Amino acid sequence: MKTKITSFLFAIVLFAFSISLFKPASYANSYSSTEYYSGTNYFDTSGVYESHKEYYYYDTYEMDDIHLERLCPNYGLITFSNSCAPMAGTMVVAYFDYTCPDLIPNFDAGYYYNGKFRYRPENSDISKLEESLYIEMGTNTEAPGTSVKQFKNGLTNYSKSKGYSISYNDCGRNLDKIKTNISNNLPVVLFLSSFDYFSEAGVTNKDGVYSMLGRKYNVGHVVVAFGYRQFRFYQEGKATVTKNFLIVSFGDNTQGYLDIDSLSCIDEAYGINIY
Fold it and tell me: In whole angstroms, how far apart are CA 45 and each of 40, 131, 138, 207, 258?
C-alpha cells in the first residue's frame, strides 16, 4: 500500500513539473500586464527595425491638434539598461512637479516664461529620480525590462513616499479616451508591443510636400503621449490622405509622432494624475 501511495504522489509531482516546464514565461505574453518592456531608442541600430520615409503631397492641408498645456519633458540620459519604463515614469513625475513641488526634492522641473512652460535641462537630480524609479519598479529583477504592474506599483510607491496620491485612467486602445485625458492635461503612458515612430528632427514641410523619416520596431517600449495631431491633405480641392498621430516623448531625448492609424501597437495605455 505504501509503495502504491508513493508512486501516486511521484506521478502527481512529475505531472506538475511537466506543466511548469512547458508553460510559457509570463513576460512572453503579448497584450497583457505581465509582458516586460525593455525599450530601445530611435537612433539604436541593433535589433530588427525598418527605416522608411513617408511623403504627403498637398495643395493645402488642415491640422487638428490637442496637447498638454505644459507639454512634456524630453529626457533620455538613461543610466540603466532596459529602463524605458523608469524613464517614462521620470518624465511623468517631472511633469507633475510643477503642481506637486515636493515630488523631486530640492529641484523645480520647470517654469513659465513669456506664457510658455519650459523644462530645465536634464541633470543629476533627474538621474537620481530615474534611479529611484528603477529601484521602486524592480526593473530587470524578474526579467529584462519592466512589466505594467511593476511600473504602476513603483510609480505609486514613489508618489506616496513624497506625500501625494496617484490615479490611473485605463484608456486601453480607445483613442477617444486617450484624447480626453490629454485634453484634461493628463499625460498618457503607452505600453507598446511595436511602433512606427517619426522623430521631430526627421520631419520637413516644404514646397507642398510633408515628409517624415521614421523607423518601425518590433520591440516592447514605453513612451509618454502628450498630444494628438491629425493631418488632412488636399490636392485639387479633394481630400487625399488623413493621418493620425500621438505626439510622444520617446525617452531618448527625442520627441515626435507615433503613427496610430492602427492602435494594435498599444498593449495598454493609462492617463496618469498625481495630486
Answer: 10, 25, 27, 31, 19
